[in-house]
Amino acid sequence: MSIPKKLKERYTWFKQHSAHEENSSLAFEIISEDKRGLISEISTKIYNLGSDILFFQSWSEYDGKCHTVIQVDNKSNFDAILKSIQEIPEIISVEITSTSKKTWGKRIIIIGGGAQVSSVASGAITEADRHNIRGETISVDTIAVIGEDEISNTIDAVGKLHRVGILVLAGSLMGGKITKSVKNLRSVHGIPVIALNMAGSVTKVCDLVVSDPVEAGVMAVMLISNIGAFNLLKVHGDKY
Amino acid sequence: MSIPKKLKERYTWFKQHSAHEENSSLAFEIISEDKRGLISEISTKIYNLGSDILFFQSWSEYDGKCHTVIQVDNKSNFDAILKSIQEIPEIISVEITSTSKKTWGKRIIIIGGGAQVSSVASGAITEADRHNIRGETISVDTIAVIGEDEISNTIDAVGKLHRVGILVLAGSLMGGKITKSVKNLRSVHGIPVIALNMAGSVTKVCDLVVSDPVEAGVMAVMLISNIGAFNLLKVHGDKY
Fold this sequence. Notes:
Shape of chain A: elongated
Number of strands of chain A: 9
Order of helices and strands of chain A: HEHEEHEHEHEHEHEEHH
Number of helices of chain A: 9
Distance between the termini of chain A: 16 Å
Structural class of chain A: alpha/beta
Strand content of chain A: 25-35%
Strand order of the largest sheet of chain A: 6-5-7-8-9
Oligomer: homodimer
């Protein structure tokens, strides 16, 4: 099986960089009233100050307040941005904090059913701990999902997450729509996929098949960490 | 120990609702060239069409492309928004997809060191699987971190995440700056905290102390799921 061009490029870039290397380490954390048009107002102010926004997240909270996190490039005039945001009447507080990439780093996503998800997670978390002690930052995010449609939709949603390094599928049977979603995630989003050695067509379209769930989790970390020589492009298509 | 007002309100709201109840189930997924000012342009267009943005996330990818996910309220004219976004020359693709809240649901965050993080995660993932089968959507996100400053900074960063239901601290010794960060997360962000029964001052400021790591993970799920009667406000301050 061939490796999609985008996967090869994105993986090589992802593997080479430590998660906390980036051109900005500061973010603005804003709490405000939930006024319609506020995202437009804040982002236009930052644009007018000549800054490049690297990350922007904003959402409504349960109490009608709006939370916003904005990361701008290092050449930005942080004081001027801070001042200009504070001038907006609906702003309750603005703080300058470290970025989410620096804190949570590269992400491993684990999707599948009960016992196997826990085992894969256990391997990945223990191995991530060892890499993080040595200077990487790798977090492990899991969701237990059942059903072909549900798993397929969840895999599609992985392409909408930021900082994802690799996906591990933890189950005993996956195929049909799931296989289509894996193909799409790999070719359109360039995200590599490990599968347990399971029934169904999904193992035929994954980058690596691993029989032991703990080992699958450990390998996921080794593959995206910039520490160590294990490289997906060298073991691609292997079964363990 | 008293329960901060914000925690009581936010927890009650969080507990009562299933993760996929919300006033919009659709989001726009946009891939574009990474032009400065694009966030301002897109959000202004949506504002001018009279829509309320419930969630907005945008970031730069490795290849110089920009990824944007936008959730608007159900009353919005989805076709008009789609058309108006497509008119921007830098847009490569726009798709209408389901929301991240519907897919990933309520989040449990686990922070701490190696073996204990894995054990807490194992309990939480296995229990989340059981609740998700019954109609909830709960995901479990973990990071292994070492050091007082690092753990403290990571706890501060939990307040910047969206959809967080509860934080579990998995370690054998936590105090000092970590204790301050827990106090702040609870009172300012209203996010409850479970700690393992560990050394250090942190257990004195948490909502629940649980000795067994697997049980701590299981309880985290039970506390935020809208299935079942286990309620933080009834067991608050207990040690298990």
